[in-house]
Amino acid sequence: MKSISIIIPVYNEVGNVAKLHQEVVDVCRKIGASFELIFVDDGSNDGTAKIIKTLKPAKIIRLRKNFGQTAALDVGFRHVRNEYVITMDGDGQNDPADIPGLIKHLEENDLDVVSGWRKNRKDTYGKRMASRVANILRGILIKDGIQDSGCTMKIYTRESISELSLFGEMHRFIPALLIMRGFKIGEIPVNHRYRKYGKTKYDIRRTIKGVLDMMSVWFWKKFALRPLHLLGGAGILFLLAGFVSGIFTVNEYLKGQSMSDSAMPILTAFLLFTGLQLFISGLMSDMISKIYYKRYQTQSYFIHEITENNDDAGPGDHELHMK
Questions:
Q1: What is the model's pTM?
Q2: What is the dihedral of CA 145, 166, 123, 22, to 10 degrees?
Q3: Does domain 4-223+298-321 have CATH number 3.40.50.2300?
Q4: For residue 150, what pLDDT is reported?
């Protein structure tokens, strides 16, 4: 059994964290895994921070304010120490009992990531419909082969997330980002439970942000290495259209047609100028893309404090914390 790190981002989940912590610890001890449990408190203001500070064993990372689930997962990824990394929601809807199944599927199929599929979701109708529409768009644009990329319940090898940098609402598209890097992804059905306490953090704003980030992932997948292919190609089309428009304008002028009342000269200038701008932008983007791959981006969040509660370490934990 490889050692595992469990990352749980939480934001105002005061009624759920204690029970979820106990469930995760029980499962890890039952399977005899050496584990660390990381709670990332994403700026909670309802007493969640006080509750998780009493939980043992656990590492608690508190962010200075609410930066969002993507940032919380990113900071968790940067602090893991073990071979396998499992992520799950802090609202109790993901079932820790699925952890052994994720590990088994990962190992038996020699995968780098296994994503949970909430086949029977216990969410509101509106949330399910929004997710269904997003899944359709993702299937068209990104084509990652995952039916439920938004499910937080996933397992990763540490190698797969070691150089991953997340921004915006990118946590929904981690499988697509990893596929682009050549990692092998799988998916299995997982249990999804009703929320008992608190309320969902998803709203229309997060949906819109998710769609915009989906477009970003699509662009990154298609043109990250050579943005000149997109912008430069569009620039050439505009230049060609401007050239044709220019020939027509000159031909009309030579025929004696007055250009003072015609929009053709303005259209020609617009097409040529726009084409030139797009082409130059493509060249500049190409250079920026190369710089990106040579220099790693910095994080977009700020940590308030990190606390480790290891007094009540379970089987295998002492070996882990001495490493």
A1: 0.70
A2: 110
A3: no
A4: 80
